[in-house]
Amino acid sequence: MAAIASLLDTDLYKFTMMQAVLHQHPGAVVQYRFKCRTPGIDLAQCIEEIDAEIDALCALRFTADELAYVRALRFVKPDFADFLGLFHLDRKYIDLRASTDVPGEIALDITGPWLHTILFEVPLLAIINEVWFRNTTQADFAEGERRLQAKAALLRDVAGYEDCRIADYGTRRRYSQHWHGHMLPLLRDALGDQFVGTSNVHFARIHGMTPHGTMAHEYLQAFQALGPRLRDSQVVALDSWAHEYRGDLGIALSDVVGLDPFLRDFDMYFCKLFDGVRHDSGDPFVWGDRMLAHFADNRVDPSSKILVFSDGLDIDKVKRLHAYFRGRCKLAFGVGTHLTNDLGPTPLSIVIKMVRCNGQPVAKLSDSPGKSMCDDPGYLTYLRQVFGLPADTAA
């Protein structure tokens, strides 16, 4: 069975960003780069199988039923759905090879029009994961189900968490497509109203779940090259998003160049316009306190806003965050690898990040060490200077 069976088998925010790119920056050219953060992983032994899976991915097209589903989403515009009807992923934009620098590693770059490459990231990561685990482990689905039910019980059977809601955000680092599709209905049945959906559009459609997602880091990163001035890149990106969605999909992402610069840019206008903010790096408790104080300082009732947590969550961390912030704001939790890749074998830490846009370097300066990627140290130094960040910001 192919690792990817549908072009909808990706995160919703890829489509929401793609629509904005179609309407506002259809000519932008970008480069993405793969990185395996887990040491000692010999992915090169799997390169032929990964290569074949990519060929199969590039042969996929959206079906009539899939297009009808996308067209029915309230924020999708007719011309974007029509564009998807003509769309396919083109293999010519991918350069996959064994690394010449580190034995056993692979080098993977995606270079081409942003509009035509944006959908590669999530399925490529899912492919690499699945091929790796297919070749190096034996799946114990009974153990996976046991662990899944135990996690559900931690949330379902403990008083005080009845209003705690989680969604699946685990497509890119899942054990396999089969396990992902199998565990989602199990989790829904075990949690009931406490499970609110998935970021995966394919499984949302198949299982009648709500798809979740707004924007990813790459959207704000690209504006480091697309905006009129680097210092204004976050403001221009958020304005662009508001122009596209007119108040819908109103969750902003706060950690592209660190929290301090984000708070300077996320002024009263954005505090009132956006429904909330998503956390994806740094201490979530400190982040949440600062975000709620920032809303209050800008004369916005913090209890009316949503804090979305999505950074390496497990159920214990979800519960601690829920207990800490409950009653102070609205809360949402996106749980990834902990749900979709916990069958015994150790999950891989792999990413694909945008590193260039229109020939210029772009970067994420994460609030967590080791989560950033950039191929130009000089640009990182310049980015820190422009946003007033210390020289030792994690890169």
TrEMBL record:
Pathway: Cofactor biosynthesis; NAD(+) biosynthesis; nicotinate D-ribonucleotide from nicotinate: step 1/1. It catalyses: 5-phospho-alpha-D-ribose 1-diphosphate + nicotinate + ATP + H2O = nicotinate beta-D-ribonucleotide + ADP + phosphate + diphosphate. Residues 164-390 form the Nicotinate/nicotinamide phosphoribosyltransferase domain. GO terms for molecular function: glycosyltransferase activity; nicotinate phosphoribosyltransferase activity. Its EC number is 6.3.4.21. It holds the Pfam family NAPRTase_N. The keyword Glycosyltransferase applies. The modification Phosphohistidine is found at H217. It is an enzyme of class 6 (ligase). InterPro entries: N/Namide_PRibTrfase, NAPRTase_N, Nic_PRibTrfase, Nic_PRibTrfase-Fam, Nicotinate_pribotase-like_C. Transiently phosphorylated on a His residue during the reaction cycle. Phosphorylation strongly increases the affinity for substrates and increases the rate of nicotinate D-ribonucleotide production. Dephosphorylation regenerates the low-affinity form of the enzyme, leading to product release. The keyword Phosphoprotein applies. Keywords: Glycosyltransferase, Ligase, Phosphoprotein, Pyridine nucleotide biosynthesis, Transferase. It comes from the Bacteria. Residues 8-129 form the Nicotinate phosphoribosyltransferase N-terminal domain. Catalyzes the synthesis of beta-nicotinate D-ribonucleotide from nicotinate and 5-phospho-D-ribose 1-phosphate at the expense of ATP. Belongs to the NAPRTase family. This is Nicotinate phosphoribosyltransferase.
